[in-house]
Amino acid sequence: MKQRLAILGSTGSIGVQTLDIVRENPALFEVRVLTANRNWQRLAAQAREFDADTAVIADERYYGQLRDALAGTDVKVYAGEDAVAQVAAGGDTDVVVNALVGYAGLAPTVAALGVILIPGMVDAGYSRPFATAVVSVSSGLSSVIPPSIAFIMYGVITGVSIGAIFAAGFIPGFIIAFCMIVSVYLSSRRHGYRGDNIERKPGDLRAAFKEAIFALLIPVIILGGIYGGIFTPTEAAAVACFYGLFVGVFVYRSLTIKVIYEVLVDTLIGSAIVMFISACAGLYSWVSASVGLVEKTSALLIGISGNEYVTLLMIYIILFIGGMLLDALHAAKVDTACVRTATGPSSHTVIQVDAGGQNSIIVFGGENMRPTKADIDHMLEGFGPGDAVIMQNELYNSPLMMRKAADKGLCVIFNPSPVNAALADYPLESVSWFLLNEIEGAALTGQTDPQAILAGMKEKYPKASVVLTLGADGAYCLHDGRTLYQPAFRVRVVDTTAAGDTFTGYFVSGLAQGMPMERIMERAARASSIAVGRMGAADSIPLADEVSAAEG
Question: Is 388 helix (H, G, I), strand (E, B) or coil?
Answer without folding.
Answer: strand
